[in-house]
Design brief:
Layout lengths: L8 H10 L12 E2 L2 H10 L7 E5 L5 H7 L4 E6 L5 H7 L6 E5 L7 H5 L4 E6 L5 H10 L4 E9 H8 L9 H9 E9 L4 E2 L6 E8 L10 H13 L5 H4 L7 H11 L12 H17 L1
Parallel strand pairs: 2-3, 2-5, 3-4, 5-6
Antiparallel strand pairs: 1-8, 6-9, 7-9
Helix pairs in contact: 2-3, 6-8, 9-12, 11-12
This protein binds S-adenosylmethionine (SAM).
């Protein structure tokens, strides 16, 4: 069977017209029209026959097609009811593709994917980029790599190092779970409709173990969140958001040797872990 390339402007417009689809801004629908980008995403995910990949938001099947043509087994989750009959036609002919109709944030992914490791590849709906990525990572699913198209500005925040303007809770969380790399940037003209901003494909290789030792993960994220809640505040002040009083905070800072006058955005992952472990230690001693 011959499958025409979907990632082209005229083919995409034809499909949309034929099915009477009006693209939804609310669902973050910006469809790729550049096959090179599709192939580079599949390559970055290291896909080949026998591998399994979860695609989030297949749209009209543009990226799905590229993923399928690597020989990998593709499971694609699409929320938009109107796109389900379109996908049946555009990628229904690939035996290695299965489409699941649903909201990725409400999907039972272990049940959908079953046993064994899989990769994630997606041109993500930008309105829920962070909940999707963090949800997948925090659930500790057996994912080896996530390759996703995100807004360039979000990709820069994910890879940001301490002391830079982009460094924040997202950087710390993503780097705690993965080793992220920006693979390449993508201009607005590679999509229909063209988004207002540049995009980037980021590859996050999931770590087997976190890069720092944390006694209680919940405490680690509580400290990280508090430290970045108000960027202009010093640690002594911002840590109050954890709910602990000034005396406990003072003791924790003394235990770790971290200067309370510093701001959260200057702290390394190790320093966040040290602070969290000190809070946990004091809590357990009480
Ligand atoms: N993969 C296609 C491409 O690259 O051309 C479409 C990407 S488009 C940026 C994002 C897709 O995610 C849309 O098809 C949209 O309907 C879908 N989507 C939005 N929210 C979703 C959700 N919560 N769960 C699953 N899919 C969702």
């Amino acid at each position: 069977m011959i499958h025409p390339v979907i990632a082209k402007k005229d083919v995409t417009l034809h499909i949309l017209k034929r099915f009477g689809i009006h693209m939804s801004k609310k669902l973050g629908q910006n469809f790729l029209i550049d096959r090179t980008v599709v192939d580079r995403i599949a390559k970055a995910a290291g896909l080949e026959e026998g591998k399994r990949v979860l695609e989030i938001g297949p749209g009209i099947g543009t990226l799905t097609q590229g993923l399928a043509e690597t020989g990998a087994d593709v499971t694609a989750v699409e929320i938009d009811t109107n796109l389900i009959p379109v996908l049946a036609e555009t990628v229904g002919g690939y035996e290695n593709v299965r489409v699941h109709h649903g909201d990725i944030l409400r999907t039972n992914i272990p049940e959908l994917m079953g046993e064994g490791t899989f990769s994630v590849a997606a041109n993500l709906p930008y309105y829920i980029t962070t909940p999707i990525i963090m949800g997948l990572l925090e659930a500790r699913l057996p994912i080896d790599v996530l390759v996703t198209m995100v807004q360039k500005e979000v990709a820069e925040r994910m890879v940001a190092r301490p002391g830079t303007k982009d460094y924040g809770a997202l950087s710390v969380s993503v780097q705690y779970f993965t080793e992220p790399d920006i693979m390449f940037t993508v201009p607005p003209r590679s999509f229909i409709p063209a988004p207002a901003v540049d995009s980037a494909v980021i590859r996050c290789r999931v770590r087997e173990n976190p890069p720092v030792q944390v006694t209680e993960e919940k405490m680690f994220f509580r400290v990280v969140k508090a430290s970045f809640a108000q960027r202009r505040k010093t640690l002594s002040n911002s840590l109050k958001v954890t709910g602990y009083g000034a005396d406990v905070i003072k003791e924790v800072l003394a235990m770790t040797g971290i200067d309370g006058q510093r701001r959260g955005e200057t702290l390394s992952l190790q320093e966040f872990a040290d602070l969290a472990n000190a809070f946990t230690k004091l809590k357990n001693e009480q």
